[in-house]
Amino acid sequence: MKQKIKQIIEVETGVEDISIRLRSQGIVEARVIFSTLCLRHTKDSLQRIGKIINRDHSSIVHYRKIYNNWLEFPKQFLNNLTTLDRIDNIINEQKDITEEDIEIVTRYRRKNILLTKEIEKLKEILVKQEKNIERLKQYEPIW
C-alpha cells in the first residue's frame, strides 16, 4: 500500500522520486503528503513509513507537524491541502485497482507532463518567431 501511495503522489505532484536526498520545497511537500496519507491508510510504524522514502522516524514526526501547520493556516497552504485531498480521494477510489492499472496511469501521466513541457518550449519558440517576423516586417520589400 505504501508503494502505491508513493507512486500516486509522484505522479500527481510531478515529483520524479520523493525518496531522493533533496530538500526542495516541492519534494518536501510531496513527502509530507506521503507521510500523512501513510499514517491515514496504513497501520505501519513511523520507522517503516520513513524507510520507503529513505528517512527516519523523526522526519515523519516532523512532516506530521508540517501537516498540522497546513491545517492551522489553510488559506496559505490551500494548494497543498487540495493536492492531499485529491490524492486521498484517488487512493480511496483505487483500493481495488491493480498494480498494472497504476502503471498504465503512471506512464500516461508522465508522458502528459513531458508533453506539457514540450508544448511550453514550443510556445517560447513560437513567440520568438513571431517577434522575428514583426521585426522583419519593418523593412520594405525589394520587389
Concise structural overview:
The protein is an all-alpha fold and 143 residues long. The chain has helices at residues 2-13, 25-41, 46-52, 57-72, 78-93, 99-137.
Structure report:
- Helices cover 75% and strands 0% of the residues.
- The chain is elongated and about 80 Å long.
- The model has no long low-confidence stretch (mean pLDDT 89).
- The chain folds into two domains: 2-96, Chromosomal Replication Initiator Protein Dnaa, Chain: A (Orthogonal Bundle), CATH 1.10.1750; 98-143.
- Helix 1 (2-13) packs across helix 5, helix 1 packs parallel to helix 6 and helix 3 crosses helix 4 (57-72).
- With 143 residues, it is an all-alpha fold.
- The relative contact order is 0.11.
Task: Indicate the topology.
Blueprint: H1 2-13, H2 25-41, H3 46-52, H4 57-72, H5 78-93, H6 99-137
CATH class of the largest domain: Mainly Alpha
What sort of overall outline do the alpha carbons produce when their principal axes are compared?
A: elongated
Task: Assign the CATH superfamily of the largest domain.
Answer: DnaA protein, C-terminal DNA-binding domain
What percent strand?
under 5%
**Major sheet size, sense and barrel closure:** none
The helix tally amounts to: 6
Counted beta strands: 0
Query: What is the domain total for the residues?
Result: 2
Order of SSEs: HHHHHH
Low-confidence stretches: none
- Helix vs. strand class: mainly alpha
Radius of gyration: 21 Å
What oligomeric state do these chains adopt? single chain
**What is the CATH-assigned architecture of the largest domain?**
Orthogonal Bundle
Give average pLDDT, whole number.
89
Considering DSSP H and I runs of 4 or more, what fraction of the residues is helical?
Answer: over 70%
